[in-house]
Design goal:
By secondary structure, this protein is mainly α. The chain is about 75% helix and about 0% strand. It has five helices and no strands.
């Protein structure tokens, strides 16, 4: 299980590595839909969200119904 502390380490890595927010969001969509992957998913899409909140909302709304879409929309709403 990924703890919140683990998610914080992932966020720091993402910020220091300067990944492409679009690529990272696509990668996050391949994560399994499980409670323990939620912090990793959220950390991964956070860069996209900060880079372009409006486009990220549209992206989240375009996702197929299910866990990934719900998580993405919750992340957008939390901003």
């Amino acid at each position: 299980m990924v703890s919140f502390r683990g998610a914080d380490a992932i966020k720091k890595h993402f910020k220091s590595a300067k990944p492409n927010p679009e690529s990272l969001a696509r990668w996050a969509l391949r994560l399994p839909a499980r409670d323990e992957t939620q912090p990793v998913f959220r950390a991964a899409i956070e860069l996209r969200l900060r880079a372009d909140p409006d486009a990220t909302r549209e992206w989240a709304e375009s996702l197929p119904a299910g866990w990934h879409r719900e998580q993405a929309l919750e992340a957008v709403s939390a901003q």
